[in-house]
Structures are given as C-alpha cells and as structure tokens.
Write a structure and sequence with these properties.
By secondary structure, the protein is of the alpha/beta class. Helix content is 31%, strand content 15%.
C-alpha cells in the first residue's frame, strides 16, 4: 500500500538528543503492512450516495478503486441532475483523486456487451444520447470508448488514469478481451464472494441480509463490487451497509487496498497515449 512519507530525522547525540526524540515522536509508528487485503471497488451510478461513500471511506481510512462512466445522475445537494463526469461533479472527482484512491474506465456510455454482429461488438448503452439503442463498435471504436472516461478524468483531476477497466455488467467475451488487450487495457472483474448485491431488488435482498452474507463470505484477495447509486434499488445499500461492512471485515483481520496493490494489476501503467 502507498504510505505517507515519514519525516527525515538525522541521528544526533548529546544536547541534540531532545530534538531527535521529538522528531521520532512526530514520525510515529510505521503503519502495519496489509497482509490480508480485500479490494473495494465502486462503479459509477446515479451518484446519490457518492458523498456519503466518500465520508465513510475517509472515516475508516480506506482507499478504494473507482470505475468511471458518464452516467445519468440524481440531484445531489447543490448539484443538479446531469451526468457523473460533468462539470458539477468534476471537483468531487478531483478531491477524491487527491486522497489517493485508484481509478479505471467503465466505458463512456455504459454500454453492456450483448454479443458479436459481423465481427463487431454489439453494445446496449444505458447512458448517453440513445440509452437502450444497440450500437455496433469495432475494436478501435471500443478502445476509444474506454479512453473517453480516462481523458475526462485527466481534465478533471490533472492525473492520468491507469489502463484498467470494468465492462458494464461484467459482460465480456474472449474476442472483446483480446481486442482491448491489444490496445493496452486490462479488464478487472469482481470475485464471486465480492458481489455485494447493491444492484439487487431490496424487497428480496434487504440490506441486513446482504451485510450478513458479505461478512460470512468475503475472504482475503476478494475484489468487492458496489456502486455510487443504483436507480432500481429502493432501499439504498451504502447508507446501511458500507460502514458496518468495513468494520466487520476489519474485525475479521482483513484490510483494504486499492488495485494498485493487487498482484494481477499492480504493474498496469497509465492509459495508452491516443
């Protein structure tokens, strides 16, 4: 994990011993290494719970990985309805990036893969100008679709996104994965136990059931999936589950890391240049 640098302290003796002691106390104990990590990830959504998620992560001192798409949003505080990567949300993403979280692409229009048609990828977007209308993209166009959130992220934050992405709905194919690998991208699914269920109907999957299930199933190494708001879920997951989930997993001896520390994704560099 990335750790804050400790103040540099020279070795001293005699009359300077008090200064050395003060410097050592300021440095404080080194943070324990994260040896049983889980990897908390969030895909964008309606953003209604995004500020709450940010506060919970801050309070718990947890870093997460966020996958960005330009999705339709609810009004949140002084922000009007719009899209998750618009100018109203840009300061929020910039602040999040400064805190040391990790970021990847979730495609621009949140296009869900639905198969191949004459050698092209058929996607059904849930965002953008024509939600629900299938589109066909060749490999180059799909890679451009991945690059758009990365370009917008750099505009908003001044930081480059790493070349990791999550396909909307987790839907891929061997042909799609091969195509994106050729243009430098790496797909990040979630693990079975890491599916936290925040997109399931709340009448059938209430929050207390989802919390109990996660605390029973999640193990070290799992990649956890949640969202920054789900339109179809009536009883929002994050306000009821996120904080006790973090506390409960920590109580089991687990710790949290971003995908920068995952053995499969730690070596992935910035997005390819256009």
């Amino acid at each position: 994990m990335h750790r804050a640098e400790r103040p540099f302290c020279m070795k001293v003796s005699g009359a300077a011993a008090a200064v050395a002691l003060a410097c050592a106390m300021a440095s404080g104990p080194a943070r324990a290494a994260c040896t049983q990590p889980v990897y908390l990830t969030f895909d964008t959504g309606h953003m209604g719970v995004a500020p709450l998620i940010d506060r919970v992560l801050d309070q718990a001192q947890v870093k997460a990985t966020f996958f960005l798409a330009n999705e339709r949003t609810q009004p949140v505080g002084e922000r009007p309805s719009g899209t998750s990567l618009d100018d109203h949300w840009a300061p929020w993403w910039k602040a999040l990036a400064r805190k040391g979280h990790d970021f990847g692409s979730h495609t621009w229009d949140h296009g869900i893969y639905r198969g191949m048609v004459e050698g092209q990828f058929k996607l059904v977007p849930t965002a953008g100008p024509n939600p629900g209308k299938p589109v066909l993209l060749d490999a180059q166009a799909y890679c451009a679709e991945l690059a758009r959130p990365a370009q917008r992220f750099e505009q908003m934050t001044g930081q480059r996104m790493r070349a990791i992405f999550r396909a909307p709905g987790g839907k891929t194919s061997p042909a799609l994965l091969a195509a994106v690998q050729r243009c430098g991208w790496h797909h990040v699914p979630w693990t079975d136990a890491g599916f936290l269920g925040d997109e399931l109907p709340s009448d059938r999957y209430p929050n207390d059931r989802l919390l109990k299930q996660a605390l029973q199933r999640v193990r070290a190494g799992d990649i956890l999936l949640a969202h920054l708001g789900i339109w179809s879920r009536q009883d929002a997951w994050a306000p009821a589950v996120l904080q006790p989930l973090i506390q409960g997993l920590k109580a089991k001896g687990l710790c949290f890391a971003t995908l920068r520390d995952h053995p499969q994704y730690r070596m992935v560099g910035p997005v390819p240049s256009p």
